[in-house]
Amino acid sequence: MTFDRIAVIGAGAWGIALANVLARAGRTVLLCARDRRSGDRLRDERKSARLPGIPLEESIAIAAVDAGLSSYDPILMAVPAQDMRDVALSIAPALKQGATVIACAKGIERGTRKFMTAVLAEAVPAAIPAILSGPSFARDVARGLPTAVTFATRDDERASALASALGSATFRPYHSTDVRGVEIGGAAKNVLAIAAGVVAGRALGASAAAALVTRGFAELFRFGKAYGARPDTLTGLSGLGDVILTCSSPRSRNYSFGIALGKGQRPDAASIGGKLVEGLFTAGVLVQMAEERGIDMPIARSVDAIIGGRTTVDEAIESLLTRPFRAEG
Questions:
Q1: What is the domain count for the chain?
Q2: Which domain holds residue 136?
Q3: Are residues 78 and 129 in the same domain?
Q4: Where residue 304 falls among pLDDT bands split at 50, 70, 90?
Q5: pTM above 0.85?
Q6: Residues 173, 236 within the same domain
Q7: What value does the mean pLDDT of the chain take?
Q8: Could you read off the pLDDT of 130-162 as tens digits, one per residue?
Q9: Which residues are catalytic?
């Protein structure tokens, strides 16, 4: 299997970063902007305010989302998780039979409580769904800094071939068939990152931060096992690796949102600095799914309660600190 013609849907920071790294690897890349005006500006200026100082590679073609996609495979969906279904439905008629459509967003769809590959399977039934996830900031990828991620789809041969097509010396996808495990790590770590940000915003110290992330990862691990994830996936790049990155850097939107909450601020309900915070949409769904399987997730539950206004930051901290002593596990 060869995959030399690749389309990226979504011309935000992540879409541009992926398009750049693929173009540098010698692939033929089409970048589709969801907003026609933004696409025209990107085509003319070859740069975006989303990634200041980083030019778009000259070989990348720019088009609208409704442009012909029948000659491209795979299709990378660099759009927010809550928009995934609508965008996938819009491009479905243009795709060739059996094309691989790759979700590049980390989240769970509200309402349906479906992970991204399940959303793609329903919206684009003629395609093969896949997921790309792992510890990666768009700016690092766009600049060509070394990054390792996980790529997963059900068929091992296809996963291996696609990982080779997407990869380069500085962008290294490790392939897997544990689709659900990769999706769980990417979605759950966003909620944990908000909690880690709250600890930083409250200036509770490095020891508290280490404890929070460790116990939060234990929650993620329990949730993942209950929903069929492989342990090696949860401790890999798309699980523990993404937790380490997202729970330690203000460049993470979820972490930054948590910092603001910890400082007593009340940012816009969906964004920080105008950028979408996926963990806000995931927290409630994650808690509901955990409760259905009897999974103990006190940190995720506290984040959901803070976001929903059912408790304050101080009350949530007190609740966690006064939990009964127990064996670790």
A1: 2
A2: 5-177
A3: yes
A4: very high
A5: yes
A6: no
A7: 91
A8: 999 999 999 999 999 999 999 999 999 999 999
A9: 189
The residue written with tokens 């995959």 in the block is 3
Q: In the prediction, which pLDDT does 49 show?
A: 83
On whether both 124 and 35 belong to a single domain, the answer is yes
CATH number (domain holding residue 188): 1.10.1040.10
From 154, 177, 200, the end of a domain falls on 177
Whether 170 and 203 share a structural domain:
no
- Which residues touch 150 (CB under 8 Å, ≥6 apart)? 132, 133, 134, 173, 174, 175, 176, 182, 233, 236, 237, 238
